[in-house]
Amino acid sequence: MNQLPRRTNAARRLFAGLLDLVYPPVCLHCSTPLDAAPSDACCDACLQLLQELLGEKCPRCAAPAPPYTLSNDECRYCEDESYAFTRAIAWGAYQSVLRDLVLKMKHGTGEPIGYHLAAMLLSQYRPELLKWPIDAIVPVPLHWTRRLWRGYNQAAVVAQVLAEGLGKPYRPRCLWRRLATPPQMTLSAEDRRRNLRDAFAARLPHPLQGACILLVDDVMTTGSTADFCARSLLAAGAREVSVVVLARALGESATDSPPRKP
Ligand SMILES: [Zn+2]
Ligand SMILES: [Zn+2]
Q: Count H helices, E strands: the chain?
């Protein structure tokens, strides 16, 4: 299929984000002062905490899963699921430092945090992602009312960094959110699915018919959001959908898009 080369401005914005953070250079998480030219965005103590969240994940649903829980590339969290996406990577578990950083990222001033987290994800998973079939990178969309309120879509920030780092086309307009779904924190998995069923729509331009899509979000919990996005993309003509998220949460009390204060 045709390649759709398209430059994003992610690198330039990443640099701007870095500048924002190095004056003054403080840890993204705990604000401890860093060296004048820090090589990392977090202090050693926070990096150590982050490192503990980056263990083995299920290749199907990205749930934290030691190897002994895996069978047929599934784990106990996804063995009864019929996800429309083929594979998934989560950089870390949605806990402690990473949870705090993802929540900070959702505020208006959190965009640089998104660039840093995406860059750290990329530095770890770039070799693996380069082996995946990817023709275009698509972020999970926000409803326009929420994007207006926040000023940006945090999933789009991560998707742009991945697109730039992997040299793949960034295609945010392939997927949009038709409905502003209410916060889903208190809903059961079944209610969440019902809530999301009509929320997404996809349209793939001709060159992307039959394409392999990399879908990007900040957090995955039950996988319902990624599943419904993948179903929309497949119905619009995609051949396959893979998923990358910054963090994987577990449990029905959490949410794919954690709540935030308006
Ligand atoms: Zn720190
Ligand atoms: Zn799994």
A: 8, 6
